Amino acid sequence: MTARLTARELTLRYGDRVVSARLTLDVPDGAFTAIVGPNACGKSTLLRAFVRLLKPADGQVTLDDRDVTAYPTKALARSLGFLPQDPVAPEDIRVRQLVARGRFPHQSLLSTWSAADEDAVTAAMEAAGVEDLADRPVHQLSGGQRQRTWIAVVLAQDTPYLLLDEPTSFLDITHQYQLLELLGGLRDQGRTVIAVLHDINQACRYADHLVAMKEGRIVAEGAAADIVDAVLLKEVFELPCVVVPDPVTGTPMVVPLPGASS
Amino acid sequence: MSALVLRGGPVSVRVERRTVVLTAVLLTLIAGVGLLGLSYGATWSSPAKVFDALSGGRGGVVIREWRLPRVAAALLFGAALGIAGAIFQNITRNPMGSPDIIGLDAGAYTGALVAITVLSGTSVQLAVGSVLGGAVAAAAVYLLSLGGGLSGLRLVVIGIAVNAILMALNSWIVLRADLEVAIAAVGWSAGSLNGVDWSDVRLPFGIIGLLLVAMVVRSQALHQDALGTELAVTTGVGVDRLRLQLVVIGVGLTATVTAVAGPIAFIALAAPQIGRRLAKAPGVPLLPAALTGALLLQGADLVAQMLLAPVSLPVGVVTTAIGGCYLIWLLTKEVRRP
Ligand SMILES: Nc1ncnc2c1ncn2[C@@H]1O[C@H](COP(=O)(O)OP(=O)(O)OP(=O)(O)O)[C@@H](O)[C@H]1O
Ligand SMILES: [Mg+2]
């Protein structure tokens, strides 16, 4: 698999707190990459570096062999779409208006609502299952409805790369799987998906490429079937468990052992 | 929600129906108070006479040369203050983060006072002095609240402190000035449109016009910025450059108005929030802020002229009286906010 989006020898830090040192990652193009790891291991930090929200202290992020900081802001926004872990909507905004904000990188001073904008917003709301909420104020939605609205915002941005930080955290089980199927479908259309996921079984089932992180390092990466076993889980999550084949897909399935938390 | 979509060639826009209706209503009201302003004076002129004067009729000199510049100034300055308020309330994400509260008016006024007392006080000196004063005040507030970021209550609280210091400084300058200058400055210190004529406003109108054009160009990015830094950046807004441009526009508007009319308080604070509530639009929208500002300032100036007629009060006295009540209400609401 080729990689057009890469991180080279990244050192990421907030002030004096170094989160990652000399981290290198090639994001396989046209594939679904899932990043897993315990809380505070630096998953969000890595995604933020990819979309240049965080300037690396050292190393660089490149898209098509060009440093992401060398792109004009709007041009990069037409390539990389990003969903933060906890975005906040402006006051008094309605679902359709918020989703329309995803079109910003495609708009200009004179063209703020082209037919293409309208089509993309409608399609994004349908895909995320929020078309029935279009006229509702975002602040009156449930956590899951709101999360699906944000997903629609990123889908409306219509980028070849989608970087999603915990897109399923507020969703019920049905909507979680719907979203993962949706992301798989986008991958099938040739898009590159990078998502931070906390459910390792879902990550194993849907991701083509799994990245396991701990304390800012990449401990293992590759196809789930090749890397996920009890040893890895013990190392990354300190979780005693057995790994069995998923009865439906045959991908690895993690079953924690009793008394695992003690 | 019902919206109007206009498309033709490379141009496409979408406007909420509510915004269109609100704009029409506000423009009608503005035309009404504008007409009233042209009619009102030492002698009452009928609307017919006003229209005759405006179309160049003989005997319309009082209306064209005295009342018209004053009404035009009230409308344009009101719009400028409304926009400046909306800019800073958007940047600080706080309804109290408006230039009159965080000391920019007071700073601009300090600059103007220095221009009068130290220099000779020509209108160019006044304009430059105000802009510099406003910019220094903005820089001071920004540097002092650094660490807290541009947004939030911290900046507002520091701004209120800077405002108080600058007001004290302004009083001190006036007290030390020559009697003549001091009397002129005091009348002006509350913010006043008394005696404004065309020669006073030509240059300011030009500057405000340019700044408003710049604002229109950046208005979509301003609203996109309301998504928060993360999404603003990743959807294509260069936020650092944008915010600097916005501060320049906002300080420029505030300082230009202050150079001519003195620090007119509370229009910048109240107009954007009233406009926002009327428009029910997300964030703090600019057009309703501008129209509400124009309406408020012209309305307040009418009250200022009528209240103790034939003596004309400084319009700032009226805006402060109304705006002070609004500020108290806002403060109690902000403090209670979780
Ligand atoms: N803005 C910040 N300033 C300082 N430190 C930060 C900041 N954001 C994150 N950190 C720290 O960096 C480390 C990595 O945080 P990060 O958000 O990347 O974790 P994460 O893997 O996404 O965790 P989670 O699963 O809880 O979302 C943590 O120790 C965190 O406290
Ligand atoms: Mg995170």
Helix share bin of chain A? 25-40%
Q: How would you describe the shape of chain B?
A: globular
Shape of chain A: globular
> Regarding CATH, which class of chain B?
Mainly Alpha
- Per DSSP E runs of 2 or more residues, the count of β-strands of chain B stands at 2
Strand content of chain A: 25-35%
Can you offer a commentary on this structure?
The complex is a heterodimer of chains A (262) and B (338). By secondary structure, chain A is of the alpha/beta class. Chain A contains nine helices and twelve strands. A six-stranded mixed beta sheet of chain A has the order 6-7-8-3-9-10, with helices on both faces. Chain A starts with a strand and ends in a 6-residue tail after the last strand. Chain B has 338 residues and is mainly alpha-helical. A two-stranded antiparallel sheet of chain B has the order 1-2. The longest helix of chain B is centred in the first third of the chain and has 32 residues, at 61-92. In chain B, a hairpin with a 2-residue loop joins strand 1 (3-8) and strand 2. Classes of the chains: A alpha/beta (262), B mainly alpha (338). The A-B interface holds A 48, 51-53, 73-78, 80-82, 84, 87-94, 96-98, 100-102, 104-105, 107, 109-115, 117-118, 135, 153, 157 and B 1, 5, 7, 10-14, 217, 220, 223-224, 226-231, 233-238, 276, 280-283. Bound molecules: adenosine-5'-triphosphate (ATP) and magnesium ion. Magnesium ion (MG) is lined by residues 43-44, 85, 165 of chain A.
Task: Provide the fold topology.
The complex is a heterodimer of chains A (262) and B (338).
Chain A: E1 3-14, E2 17-28, E3 32-36, H1 43-50, E4 58-63, E5 66-67, H2 73-77, E6 80-83, H3 95-101, H4 115-128, H5 143-157, E7 161-165, H6 173-188, E8 192-196, H7 200-206, E9 209-214, E10 217-222, H8 224-227, H9 230-237, E11 241-245, E12 252-256
Parallel strand pairs in A: 3-8, 3-9, 6-7, 7-8
Antiparallel strand pairs in A: 1-2, 1-4, 4-5, 9-10, 11-12
Helix pairs in contact in A: 3-5, 4-5
Chain B: E1 3-8, E2 11-16, H1 17-39, H2 47-54, H3 61-92, H4 104-117, H5 123-144, H6 153-176, H7 179-189, H8 198-224, H9 229-234, H10 239-261, H11 267-279, H12 286-307, H13 315-336
Antiparallel strand pairs in B: 1-2
The complex binds adenosine-5'-triphosphate and magnesium ion (MG).
